[in-house]
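A.,

Following up on our hallway conversation. C-alpha coordinates first:
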Protein backbone atom coordinates (compact mmCIF):
# COMPACT_ATOMS: atom_id res chain seq x y z
CA UNK A 1 0.00 0.00 0.00
CA UNK A 2 2.77 2.44 1.02
CA UNK A 3 4.64 1.82 -2.26
CA UNK A 4 1.45 2.57 -4.18
CA UNK A 5 1.01 5.84 -2.29
CA UNK A 6 4.63 6.79 -3.02
CA UNK A 7 4.06 6.21 -6.73
CA UNK A 8 0.78 8.09 -6.58
CA UNK A 9 1.93 11.19 -4.68
CA UNK A 10 5.68 11.41 -5.19
CA UNK A 11 6.73 11.22 -8.82
CA UNK A 12 9.76 12.85 -10.41
CA UNK A 13 7.83 15.10 -12.82
CA UNK A 14 4.21 16.06 -12.79
CA UNK A 15 2.36 18.48 -15.01
CA UNK A 16 -0.38 20.73 -13.52
CA UNK A 17 -3.15 18.40 -14.74
CA UNK A 18 -1.46 15.32 -13.26
CA UNK A 19 -0.89 17.16 -9.97
CA UNK A 20 -4.57 18.13 -9.72
CA UNK A 21 -5.60 14.52 -10.48
CA UNK A 22 -3.17 13.24 -7.85
CA UNK A 23 -4.52 15.67 -5.24
CA UNK A 24 -8.08 14.60 -6.17
CA UNK A 25 -7.31 10.90 -5.69
CA UNK A 26 -5.49 11.60 -2.41
CA UNK A 27 -8.37 13.78 -1.14
CA UNK A 28 -10.89 11.02 -2.01
CA UNK A 29 -8.83 8.47 -0.01
CA UNK A 30 -8.66 10.78 3.03
CA UNK A 31 -12.34 11.87 2.93
CA UNK A 32 -13.59 8.69 4.62
CA UNK A 33 -17.24 9.75 5.06
CA UNK A 34 -17.38 11.32 1.56
CA UNK A 35 -18.81 14.64 2.83
CA UNK A 36 -16.42 16.71 0.69
CA UNK A 37 -14.38 17.75 3.70
CA UNK A 38 -11.33 16.25 5.49
CA UNK A 39 -11.26 16.88 9.25
CA UNK A 40 -8.45 16.23 11.75
CA UNK A 41 -9.49 12.66 12.66
CA UNK A 42 -9.94 11.66 8.97
CA UNK A 43 -6.54 13.15 8.07
CA UNK A 44 -4.79 11.42 10.98
CA UNK A 45 -6.43 8.04 10.31
CA UNK A 46 -6.01 8.27 6.51
CA UNK A 47 -2.30 9.12 6.63
CA UNK A 48 -1.67 6.38 9.21
CA UNK A 49 -3.47 3.85 6.98
CA UNK A 50 -1.25 4.86 4.05
CA UNK A 51 1.87 4.40 6.20
CA UNK A 52 2.76 8.10 6.07
CA UNK A 53 4.43 9.07 9.35
CA UNK A 54 3.49 12.44 10.87
CA UNK A 55 4.70 14.32 13.93
CA UNK A 56 2.57 14.67 17.06
CA UNK A 57 -0.19 17.26 16.48
CA UNK A 58 0.67 17.49 12.75
CA UNK A 59 -2.87 16.71 11.50
CA UNK A 60 -4.33 19.48 13.68
CA UNK A 61 -1.71 21.96 12.46
CA UNK A 62 -2.32 21.08 8.78
CA UNK A 63 -6.09 21.57 9.13
CA UNK A 64 -5.66 24.83 11.14
CA UNK A 65 -3.18 26.19 8.55
CA UNK A 66 -5.35 25.41 5.50
CA UNK A 67 -8.84 25.97 6.96
CA UNK A 68 -9.73 29.40 5.55
CA UNK A 69 -13.48 29.32 6.25
CA UNK A 70 -12.92 28.05 9.85
CA UNK A 71 -15.32 25.09 9.54
CA UNK A 72 -12.79 22.71 11.18
CA UNK A 73 -12.10 20.83 7.98
CA UNK A 74 -10.45 21.17 4.57
CA UNK A 75 -12.52 21.13 1.40
CA UNK A 76 -10.77 20.15 -1.85
CA UNK A 77 -9.66 23.70 -2.79
CA UNK A 78 -8.25 24.36 0.72
CA UNK A 79 -6.52 20.96 0.72
CA UNK A 80 -4.93 21.60 -2.71
CA UNK A 81 -3.87 25.14 -1.81
CA UNK A 82 -2.24 23.97 1.44
CA UNK A 83 -0.24 21.22 -0.32
CA UNK A 84 0.92 23.51 -3.15
CA UNK A 85 2.06 26.29 -0.79
CA UNK A 86 3.67 23.81 1.59
CA UNK A 87 5.55 22.18 -1.29
CA UNK A 88 6.93 25.57 -2.40
CA UNK A 89 8.29 26.21 1.10
CA UNK A 90 9.81 22.72 1.24
CA UNK A 91 11.50 23.33 -2.12
CA UNK A 92 13.12 26.54 -0.74
CA UNK A 93 14.26 24.69 2.40
CA UNK A 94 15.70 21.85 0.30
CA UNK A 95 17.65 24.35 -1.82
CA UNK A 96 19.02 26.10 1.28
CA UNK A 97 20.32 22.73 2.57
CA UNK A 98 21.73 21.63 -0.79
CA UNK A 99 24.96 23.67 -0.47
CA UNK A 100 26.69 22.33 -3.61
CA UNK A 101 23.51 22.42 -5.77
CA UNK A 102 23.82 18.77 -6.88
CA UNK A 103 20.15 18.01 -6.16
CA UNK A 104 20.98 15.80 -3.16
CA UNK A 105 21.58 16.46 0.56
CA UNK A 106 24.33 14.55 2.36
CA UNK A 107 25.21 14.32 6.08
CA UNK A 108 27.87 17.07 5.90
CA UNK A 109 25.34 19.48 4.39
CA UNK A 110 22.89 18.68 7.22
CA UNK A 111 25.69 19.22 9.78
CA UNK A 112 26.72 22.53 8.18
CA UNK A 113 23.15 23.85 7.94
CA UNK A 114 22.48 23.13 11.62
CA UNK A 115 25.84 24.71 12.58
CA UNK A 116 24.76 27.87 10.69
CA UNK A 117 21.76 28.03 13.04
CA UNK A 118 23.92 27.54 16.14
CA UNK A 119 23.17 23.84 16.69
CA UNK A 120 26.39 21.80 16.81
CA UNK A 121 25.90 18.07 16.13
CA UNK A 122 28.31 15.21 15.45
CA UNK A 123 28.75 13.54 12.04
CA UNK A 124 27.03 10.44 13.50
CA UNK A 125 23.99 12.51 14.58
CA UNK A 126 23.78 14.08 11.11
CA UNK A 127 23.81 10.59 9.58
CA UNK A 128 21.00 9.49 11.95
CA UNK A 129 18.90 12.48 10.87
CA UNK A 130 19.62 11.70 7.22
CA UNK A 131 18.80 8.02 7.71
CA UNK A 132 15.35 8.93 9.08
CA UNK A 133 14.52 10.63 5.72
CA UNK A 134 16.54 8.48 3.29
CA UNK A 135 14.24 5.89 1.63
CA UNK A 136 16.53 4.30 -0.97
CA UNK A 137 19.50 3.71 1.39
CA UNK A 138 21.99 5.87 -0.57
CA UNK A 139 22.79 8.02 2.53
CA UNK A 140 21.77 11.06 0.51
CA UNK A 141 18.31 12.63 0.21
CA UNK A 142 16.91 13.83 -3.11
CA UNK A 143 13.97 16.21 -3.57
CA UNK A 144 11.36 13.43 -3.79
CA UNK A 145 12.51 11.81 -0.53
CA UNK A 146 12.58 15.22 1.16
CA UNK A 147 9.08 16.09 -0.05
CA UNK A 148 7.75 12.65 0.90
CA UNK A 149 9.08 12.96 4.45
CA UNK A 150 7.85 16.47 5.18
CA UNK A 151 4.76 16.99 2.98
CA UNK A 152 2.41 15.86 5.73
CA UNK A 153 4.58 17.21 8.56
CA UNK A 154 3.87 20.93 8.92
CA UNK A 155 7.55 21.94 8.88
CA UNK A 156 7.69 24.94 6.57
CA UNK A 157 11.21 26.22 7.06
CA UNK A 158 14.58 25.08 8.37
CA UNK A 159 13.95 26.18 11.96
CA UNK A 160 10.58 24.36 12.01
CA UNK A 161 12.38 21.21 10.85
CA UNK A 162 14.93 21.62 13.67
CA UNK A 163 12.00 21.72 16.11
CA UNK A 164 10.68 18.52 14.51
CA UNK A 165 14.04 16.84 15.21
CA UNK A 166 14.74 18.40 18.57
CA UNK A 167 11.78 18.68 20.96
CA UNK A 168 12.22 20.90 24.02
CA UNK A 169 10.56 20.19 27.32
CA UNK A 170 10.11 22.36 30.40
CA UNK A 171 11.02 20.60 33.63
CA UNK A 172 10.79 22.33 37.01
CA UNK A 173 12.39 20.56 39.96
CA UNK A 174 12.47 23.62 42.19
CA UNK A 175 15.97 24.85 41.34
CA UNK A 176 16.18 27.28 38.42
CA UNK A 177 19.85 26.75 37.61
CA UNK A 178 19.39 25.17 34.18
CA UNK A 179 20.42 26.67 30.82
CA UNK A 180 17.51 28.82 29.52
CA UNK A 181 15.27 27.65 26.65
CA UNK A 182 16.28 28.24 23.04
CA UNK A 183 13.78 30.04 20.81
CA UNK A 184 13.85 30.26 17.02
CA UNK A 185 13.67 33.63 15.24
CA UNK A 186 10.08 32.86 14.18
CA UNK A 187 9.03 32.21 17.80
CA UNK A 188 10.60 35.52 18.83
CA UNK A 189 8.97 37.58 16.06
CA UNK A 190 5.50 35.99 16.40
CA UNK A 191 5.46 36.35 20.20
CA UNK A 192 5.30 32.57 20.79
CA UNK A 193 8.32 32.85 23.11
CA UNK A 194 6.42 34.71 25.86
CA UNK A 195 3.55 32.20 25.66
CA UNK A 196 6.04 29.36 26.12
CA UNK A 197 7.70 31.20 29.04
CA UNK A 198 4.25 31.85 30.58
CA UNK A 199 3.34 28.16 30.18
CA UNK A 200 6.66 27.18 31.79
CA UNK A 201 6.16 29.63 34.69
CA UNK A 202 2.65 28.31 35.39
CA UNK A 203 3.94 24.72 35.22
CA UNK A 204 6.68 25.64 37.71
CA UNK A 205 4.20 27.33 40.06
CA UNK A 206 1.86 24.30 40.19
CA UNK A 207 4.78 21.87 40.42
CA UNK A 208 6.43 23.74 43.32
CA UNK A 209 3.11 24.03 45.17
CA UNK A 210 2.49 20.29 44.75
CA UNK A 211 5.93 19.35 46.11
CA UNK A 212 6.24 22.18 48.71
CA UNK A 213 6.03 19.85 51.78
CA UNK A 214 9.05 17.86 50.53
CA UNK A 215 10.89 21.10 49.73
CA UNK A 216 10.24 22.42 53.25
CA UNK A 217 11.45 19.10 54.69
CA UNK A 218 14.66 19.40 52.63
CA UNK A 219 15.38 22.92 53.99
CA UNK A 220 14.43 21.82 57.53
CA UNK A 221 16.91 18.91 57.38
CA UNK A 222 19.64 21.01 55.72
CA UNK A 223 19.56 23.47 58.62
CA UNK A 224 18.58 21.41 61.67
CA UNK A 225 19.78 17.83 61.01
CA UNK A 226 23.16 16.72 62.38
CA UNK A 227 24.86 13.59 63.79
CA UNK A 228 23.48 14.37 67.26
CA UNK A 229 20.07 15.49 65.96
CA UNK A 230 19.03 12.85 63.44
CA UNK A 231 15.76 13.86 61.77
CA UNK A 232 13.84 11.18 59.89
CA UNK A 233 11.26 12.04 57.21
CA UNK A 234 8.35 10.83 59.36
CA UNK A 235 9.74 12.49 62.51
CA UNK A 236 10.33 15.76 60.67
CA UNK A 237 6.79 15.89 59.27
CA UNK A 238 5.34 15.04 62.73
CA UNK A 239 7.38 17.89 64.23
CA UNK A 240 6.13 20.37 61.58
CA UNK A 241 2.48 19.29 61.93
CA UNK A 242 2.65 19.52 65.75
CA UNK A 243 4.17 23.02 65.61
CA UNK A 244 2.00 24.61 62.92
CA UNK A 245 -0.64 22.22 61.57
CA UNK A 246 -1.15 21.02 57.99
CA UNK A 247 -0.81 24.50 56.41
CA UNK A 248 2.69 24.85 57.91
CA UNK A 249 3.91 22.30 55.32
CA UNK A 250 3.49 25.04 52.66
CA UNK A 251 5.49 27.73 54.50
CA UNK A 252 7.72 29.66 52.10
CA UNK A 253 5.85 28.39 49.03
CA UNK A 254 4.25 31.76 48.24
CA UNK A 255 7.55 33.55 47.63
CA UNK A 256 9.02 30.43 45.97
CA UNK A 257 6.23 30.67 43.35
CA UNK A 258 6.39 34.48 43.16
CA UNK A 259 10.06 34.51 42.17
CA UNK A 260 9.53 32.27 39.10
CA UNK A 261 8.23 35.02 36.77
CA UNK A 262 10.95 37.68 37.36
CA UNK A 263 13.71 35.07 37.37
CA UNK A 264 12.49 33.50 34.09
CA UNK A 265 12.12 36.88 32.36
CA UNK A 266 15.53 38.20 33.50
CA UNK A 267 17.26 34.93 32.62
CA UNK A 268 15.74 34.86 29.12
CA UNK A 269 16.61 38.50 28.33
CA UNK A 270 20.13 38.19 29.75
CA UNK A 271 20.71 34.93 27.84
CA UNK A 272 19.82 36.59 24.52
CA UNK A 273 22.25 39.46 25.23
CA UNK A 274 25.12 37.20 26.39
CA UNK A 275 24.70 35.01 23.27
CA UNK A 276 25.09 38.08 21.03
CA UNK A 277 28.08 39.26 23.05
CA UNK A 278 29.93 35.93 23.23
CA UNK A 279 29.23 34.30 19.85
CA UNK A 280 32.39 34.20 17.72
CA UNK A 281 30.32 34.59 14.52
CA UNK A 282 27.08 36.59 14.20
CA UNK A 283 24.00 34.34 14.20
CA UNK A 284 25.98 31.26 15.30
CA UNK A 285 26.64 29.97 18.80
CA UNK A 286 28.75 26.96 19.77
CA UNK A 287 28.01 24.57 22.65
CA UNK A 288 30.63 26.06 25.02
CA UNK A 289 29.42 29.60 24.19
CA UNK A 290 25.84 28.49 24.93
CA UNK A 291 26.96 27.03 28.27
CA UNK A 292 28.85 30.23 29.27
CA UNK A 293 25.94 32.44 28.15
CA UNK A 294 23.46 30.27 30.08
CA UNK A 295 25.60 30.27 33.24
CA UNK A 296 26.04 34.07 33.10
CA UNK A 297 22.32 34.54 32.48
CA UNK A 298 21.56 32.31 35.48
CA UNK A 299 24.01 34.32 37.63
CA UNK A 300 22.42 37.60 36.49
CA UNK A 301 18.89 36.38 37.30
CA UNK A 302 19.98 34.97 40.67
CA UNK A 303 21.71 38.25 41.59
CA UNK A 304 18.53 40.22 40.83
CA UNK A 305 16.12 37.98 42.75
CA UNK A 306 18.49 36.73 45.50
CA UNK A 307 16.79 38.68 48.35
CA UNK A 308 13.68 36.63 47.57
CA UNK A 309 15.78 33.42 47.96
CA UNK A 310 16.86 34.55 51.46
CA UNK A 311 13.27 35.40 52.40
CA UNK A 312 12.09 32.03 51.04
CA UNK A 313 14.51 30.21 53.39
CA UNK A 314 13.51 32.35 56.40
CA UNK A 315 9.77 31.94 55.71
CA UNK A 316 10.20 28.17 55.17
CA UNK A 317 11.92 27.78 58.55
CA UNK A 318 9.75 30.26 60.49
CA UNK A 319 7.93 29.30 63.65
CA UNK A 320 4.24 30.09 64.16
CA UNK A 321 3.79 33.83 64.71
CA UNK A 322 7.40 34.75 63.81
CA UNK A 323 6.42 36.64 60.63
CA UNK A 324 2.96 37.74 59.54
CA UNK A 325 3.93 37.56 55.85
CA UNK A 326 6.53 38.38 53.18
CA UNK A 327 6.64 42.13 53.83
CA UNK A 328 6.87 41.65 57.60
CA UNK A 329 9.74 39.19 57.06
CA UNK A 330 11.61 41.67 54.80
CA UNK A 331 11.03 44.54 57.30
CA UNK A 332 12.33 42.50 60.28
CA UNK A 333 15.43 41.25 58.40
CA UNK A 334 16.23 44.83 57.28
CA UNK A 335 15.72 46.27 60.78
CA UNK A 336 17.72 43.61 62.68
CA UNK A 337 20.46 42.66 60.19
CA UNK A 338 20.62 45.38 57.54
CA UNK A 339 20.73 45.18 53.71
CA UNK A 340 23.72 42.78 53.67
CA UNK A 341 21.53 40.04 55.19
CA UNK A 342 19.60 39.79 51.89
CA UNK A 343 22.77 38.48 50.19
CA UNK A 344 23.88 35.91 52.77
CA UNK A 345 24.93 32.68 51.02
CA UNK A 346 25.24 34.50 47.67
CA UNK A 347 28.76 33.18 46.86
CA UNK A 348 27.99 29.42 47.25
CA UNK A 349 24.73 29.99 45.34
CA UNK A 350 26.52 31.55 42.34
CA UNK A 351 29.28 28.91 42.46
CA UNK A 352 26.59 26.19 42.39
CA UNK A 353 25.37 27.32 38.94
CA UNK A 354 28.58 26.13 37.21
CA UNK A 355 28.56 22.42 38.27
CA UNK A 356 24.77 22.21 37.99
CA UNK A 357 24.47 23.67 34.48
CA UNK A 358 27.66 21.98 33.21
CA UNK A 359 26.80 18.48 34.42
CA UNK A 360 23.11 18.85 33.45
CA UNK A 361 24.10 19.80 29.89
CA UNK A 362 26.87 17.15 29.58
CA UNK A 363 24.72 14.27 30.93
CA UNK A 364 21.75 15.27 28.76
CA UNK A 365 23.88 15.35 25.58
CA UNK A 366 25.52 11.99 26.48
CA UNK A 367 22.16 10.30 27.11
CA UNK A 368 20.74 11.75 23.89
CA UNK A 369 23.71 10.50 21.84
CA UNK A 370 23.55 7.08 23.52
CA UNK A 371 19.86 6.76 22.63
CA UNK A 372 20.51 7.84 19.03
CA UNK A 373 23.35 5.35 18.56
CA UNK A 374 21.46 2.40 20.11
CA UNK A 375 17.76 2.86 19.45
CA UNK A 376 17.21 5.35 16.60
CA UNK A 377 16.16 3.08 13.72
CA UNK A 378 13.57 4.91 11.60
CA UNK A 379 13.67 8.34 13.17
CA UNK A 380 15.92 10.74 15.08
CA UNK A 381 12.97 11.80 17.27
CA UNK A 382 13.21 10.05 20.69
CA UNK A 383 9.68 10.94 21.81
CA UNK A 384 8.38 12.54 25.01
CA UNK A 385 9.12 9.73 27.49
CA UNK A 386 12.79 9.42 26.47
CA UNK A 387 13.22 13.21 26.62
CA UNK A 388 11.57 13.40 30.06
CA UNK A 389 13.78 10.54 31.26
CA UNK A 390 16.97 12.15 29.95
CA UNK A 391 15.96 15.54 31.40
CA UNK A 392 15.16 14.03 34.81
CA UNK A 393 18.43 12.07 35.03
CA UNK A 394 20.57 15.00 33.86
CA UNK A 395 18.88 17.44 36.29
CA UNK A 396 19.30 14.97 39.15
CA UNK A 397 23.02 14.54 38.36
CA UNK A 398 23.37 18.34 38.26
CA UNK A 399 21.69 18.60 41.66
CA UNK A 400 23.92 15.87 43.09
CA UNK A 401 27.04 17.83 42.05
CA UNK A 402 25.87 21.21 43.31
CA UNK A 403 24.03 20.02 46.46
CA UNK A 404 26.82 20.73 49.01
CA UNK A 405 26.94 24.35 47.80
CA UNK A 406 23.12 24.55 48.06
CA UNK A 407 23.30 23.26 51.65
CA UNK A 408 26.00 25.84 52.58
CA UNK A 409 23.89 28.60 50.97
CA UNK A 410 20.76 27.58 52.95
CA UNK A 411 22.64 27.43 56.26
CA UNK A 412 24.22 30.84 55.67
CA UNK A 413 20.80 32.30 54.78
CA UNK A 414 19.25 30.81 57.93
CA UNK A 415 22.00 31.21 60.55
CA UNK A 416 21.08 34.74 61.76
CA UNK A 417 17.51 33.60 62.55
CA UNK A 418 18.69 30.65 64.67
CA UNK A 419 19.18 31.34 68.37
CA UNK A 420 22.80 31.05 69.51
CA UNK A 421 24.01 30.32 65.98
CA UNK A 422 27.52 31.44 65.08
CA UNK A 423 27.76 33.68 61.95
CA UNK A 424 30.28 31.77 59.82
CA UNK A 425 31.69 32.59 56.35
CA UNK A 426 31.54 29.90 53.64
CA UNK A 427 35.02 28.34 54.11
CA UNK A 428 34.67 28.04 57.90
CA UNK A 429 31.20 26.56 57.58
CA UNK A 430 32.44 23.86 55.16
CA UNK A 431 35.33 23.07 57.53
CA UNK A 432 32.99 22.86 60.54
CA UNK A 433 30.51 20.52 58.75
CA UNK A 434 33.34 18.22 57.57
CA UNK A 435 34.89 18.09 61.09
CA UNK A 436 31.63 17.47 62.98
CA UNK A 437 29.52 15.50 60.49
CA UNK A 438 31.95 14.16 57.87
CA UNK A 439 31.58 14.33 54.07
CA UNK A 440 27.95 13.11 54.09
CA UNK A 441 27.04 16.06 56.31
CA UNK A 442 27.15 18.11 53.11
CA UNK A 443 24.26 16.00 51.77
CA UNK A 444 21.75 16.44 54.62
CA UNK A 445 18.20 16.60 53.26
CA UNK A 446 19.02 15.05 49.90
CA UNK A 447 16.46 12.24 50.33
CA UNK A 448 13.35 14.53 50.28
CA UNK A 449 15.07 16.49 47.51
CA UNK A 450 15.31 13.36 45.33
CA UNK A 451 11.82 12.23 46.34
CA UNK A 452 10.31 15.39 44.84
CA UNK A 453 12.05 15.07 41.44
CA UNK A 454 9.64 12.59 39.76
CA UNK A 455 6.39 14.21 41.01
CA UNK A 456 7.78 17.69 40.19
CA UNK A 457 8.75 16.66 36.64
CA UNK A 458 5.41 14.90 36.07
CA UNK A 459 3.30 17.80 37.37
CA UNK A 460 5.28 20.46 35.48
CA UNK A 461 5.12 18.52 32.20
CA UNK A 462 1.35 17.89 32.40
CA UNK A 463 0.58 21.51 33.35
CA UNK A 464 2.95 22.80 30.65
CA UNK A 465 1.12 20.77 27.97
CA UNK A 466 -2.29 22.02 29.18
CA UNK A 467 -1.02 25.61 29.23
CA UNK A 468 0.42 25.27 25.71
CA UNK A 469 -2.95 24.05 24.52
CA UNK A 470 -4.82 26.82 26.37
CA UNK A 471 -2.54 29.55 25.01
CA UNK A 472 -2.91 28.23 21.47
CA UNK A 473 0.70 27.13 21.02
CA UNK A 474 0.70 24.56 18.20
CA UNK A 475 2.88 21.49 18.65
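Then the amino acids I'd put at each of the 475 positions:
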Amino acid sequence: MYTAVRKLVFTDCRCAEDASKTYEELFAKLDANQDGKVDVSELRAGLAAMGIKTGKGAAQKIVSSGDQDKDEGLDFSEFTKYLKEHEKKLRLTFKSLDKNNDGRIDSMEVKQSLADLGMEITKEDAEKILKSIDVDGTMTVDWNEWREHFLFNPATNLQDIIRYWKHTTVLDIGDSLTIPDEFTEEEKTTGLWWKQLAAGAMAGAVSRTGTAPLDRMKVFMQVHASKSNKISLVGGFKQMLKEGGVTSLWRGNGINVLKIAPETAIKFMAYEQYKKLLSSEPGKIKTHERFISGSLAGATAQTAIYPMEVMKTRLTLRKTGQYSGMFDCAKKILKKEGVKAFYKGYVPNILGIIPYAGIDLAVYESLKNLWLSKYAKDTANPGVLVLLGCGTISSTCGQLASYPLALIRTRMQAQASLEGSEQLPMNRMVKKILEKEGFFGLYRGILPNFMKVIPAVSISYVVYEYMRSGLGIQK
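The two ends are 29 Å apart (CA to CA). Curious whether your intuition agrees with the design.

B.
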